[in-house]
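Lab meeting, action items carried over

1. Structure of the two-component assembly. Owner: GW. Status: complete.
Input record:
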Amino acid sequence: MFELLGVPPQALFGQLLLGLINGSFYAILSLGLAVIFGLLNIINFTHGAQYMMGAFVAWMCLNYLGINYWAALLLAPIAVGITGVVIERFLLKRIAHVDHLYGLLLTFGLALIIQGVFRNNYGSSGLPYQIPAELRGGYNLGFMFLPTYRGWVVIASLIVCLATWFVIEKTKLGSYLRAATENPTLTQAFGINVPLLVTLTYGFGVALAAFAGVLAAPIYSVNPNMGADLIIVVFAVVVIGGMGSIMGAIVTGFSLGLVEGLTKVFYPEASATVIFIIMAIVLLVKPAGLFGRAA
Amino acid sequence: MATDAVLERPAAAAGAKPLLAVRGLEAWYGESHVLHGIELDVGEGEVVTLLGRNGAGKTTTLKSIMGVIGKRKGSVTFAGQETIGLPSRAIARLGIGYVPEERGIYSTLSVEENLMLPPQVKPGGLPIEQIFTLFPNLKERLKSQGTKLSGGEQQMLAIGRILRTGANLLLLDEPTEGLAPVIIDQIGATIRMLKQKGFTIVLVEQNFRFAQTVADRHYVVEQGRVIDMIPNPELDANIDKLHSYLGV
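Predicted assembly:
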């Protein structure tokens, strides 16, 4: 068996796969953050909590209502998305005209409240969620073993990210969205309902987070802190990719997952910090982010 | 002075039932009070200009009609409907198309997306082929980024996109600003053609020589008020007065 820089290929590909999985979550979550930031100019600190809510709704669906994984994959994003719509209509809208720091504070506070409520009711040790029967097992690819569910996570995340990119960049609705992002006042003066677009965009960004949460439920244990741990890294990803850039969020999400995986193979000590080191370098060299436009 | 006559019977020149009637319109940018009771009427099918010095309130008047300003008061009726309490999207839906001073071409949209962006608000908009006949340059650059167009092309795009929508009142804010004479001629020809088709147009202009070639009447705006109204045929006779208004 050949070795690469003293690393057996199974270990290398295994870590690359893990990196790709993490990258899938980074991509969906940073995409949601980027979409929300683009139109609302709010850094949605509730995003991690909304990802966690997605996983919990899937768990509740299964354990209280007997609704399976596939239905939850659709229902949980809708349910959590609706809570997002409510948050936008009743809270975020009221502070849209003041400094954006208030939006950050509000969403951060909401995240703490939501996580607290779930911790009170479900504890913080984590609840198990079984991989659906259709996605158990795996494939031997010769150079490595690929668990079916992990392959599915990567594919599902790619599909959702590319579909979102397509809608925003290539459709009429997307052109409304881009126009409202660039010049909301004029877009409104053409007869386009910008406040409605804003509400739906927030709901959609939140639904993306919940979708990632359902994908994560069978891999990571469903617990109230799952989002808080992940979201810090995702914020770094968004900063590296450039705030508000759709393709930037997707590409950066997947590549940083891979970089993290590679670091685990070659220099494991740095694997937890490598993304933040990259963020610091990118901020020094290109403050608007790799895909961002300079303001 | 003609001022009093204008303010007392603003509807006289426009006929009995103006399409657009503005009464006592006041507007603010934050704390600063910019319009102090604008009064004007625009009859159906008329082309009317707002003349005045920089900062007189011409652009603000258009913005206030369109509802894209922080705070406004008074009365703006369009086709008999009061719009002062409506959001701009509802005002647009009544059939008002707006070309802002900065043209408002979106850099994140292609030329085609810019052109197709404003939703149809009424039947009777120009078919897209006719817009391409008017502005052939646009057809060749459909896939370009909106802001990659030249200034003249951007102006054509800004006008072209509101002709599609069926809006019958067009608010054009300095469509000739910064453009080459040959393009100004093309825009003048377009405005005369639109008038022939029955569009009603309110035009903000610095250049009254250009305004003279397209308009029926001219309102002179100063310090947030309409201080005079000059019918186009009488413009030459009033040229000295106009010079003193405009400070040229």
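2. GW to write a short summary for the group page. Key points so far: Residues 9-40 of chain A form the longest helix (32 residues). Chain A touches chain B through 18 residues (CB under 8 Å).
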